[in-house]
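User: I'm new to structure prediction. If I give you an amino acid sequence, what do you actually give back? Let's try with this one:
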Amino acid sequence: MAFQKPPGTQDFLPGASELWQYVERTAREVARKYRFREIRTPVFEATELFQRGVGETTDIVEKEMYTFVDKGDRSMTLRPEGTAGVVRAYVENKLYGEPELSKLYYIGPMFRYERAQAGRYRQFHQFGVEAIGSEDPALDAEVVALGYSFYKEVGLTGVTVDINSVGTPEVRAAYRETLLGFLRPIKDTLCKDCQSRMERNPPARARLQGGPGQVRRRAIDP
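Assistant: Good question. You get back a string of structure tokens that encode the predicted 3D arrangement of the chain. For your 222 residues, that looks like this:
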């Protein structure tokens, strides 16, 4: 019997692995310059952590998580993203008790049960940063600058930065009502996913039955 790698995964052979080392080394050097410290969290966590942290109505939670029940009859999930585990570690280990804000970065494998196709992998690697403990907007600017510096250091050109905002709670509430007012009359023409989410979390990009796929966030595999 000839064994093969699982669908949606990759082998990084000599030659390619050195490129990965270069990207990871560059990420760590850039993070260090911005005074971010590395944090390493478990590859799997309680399923409820991702349901609450990522959002129960997202594609990630509803369709793409690798979830299993362990021998202790606990539901566990291979991490689909890094933020939820970092925030859990921040609270559990009382990092909020430190005198300075926590500037943390992580590098590691993430897992999503995506449809296996070119450019999408069920195991992918992600470099991310989390800054916790300050509401200063300058910190947001610093995170944006860090990301831009990383792309520049690895040699990417033509990179542009687009700034967006989800708005204030008042603006989001008004937008939600306006969006629902538009979607309710055409509910029967929407896909089943959009119909089920309409009241819980109205989709900003509604998908018509039989129409093109929704745009989704995903990690870019270097």
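You can read the tokens as a compact description of the fold. Here is one thing that stands out. The mean pLDDT is 85.
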